[in-house]
Amino acid sequence: MSTQFSLSRALAGFGVTANNLRRCWSGRTDDGKTVVMVLWIEKFYVDRAGVRSYRWRGRWSGGYRQGHAEAMQNLIWARDHCDGYFNVVLVAGHDEPSHKRHFFPADFRMKITTLDPEAGTFVARAAT
Prior knowledge:
alpha+beta
């Protein structure tokens, strides 16, 4: 795994500026050619075909609602304008006693396989 970054620096590495770092879980470049999702490293799994995959289930509540809505909009954008591809910033550390989060730009992209904005869910696989 690469060097740890702040969230703003990890996103900037992909050309994205966050709208609100406290509620940011996604972003896209000004030209719309790149979408970036912030994904929890421990939520990845290997699917039946042996491919690294990620499942995002359900809507968020409270202070995270705005970030979830923005993430869904960015996933729709990725589906409709980026052939379903998005880049990834990995986040880890929420189980630590300090609750400090660690961010790492991933060296792989993901491709959306299913997206249900009404339910607030998606599944994506590592792009080959």
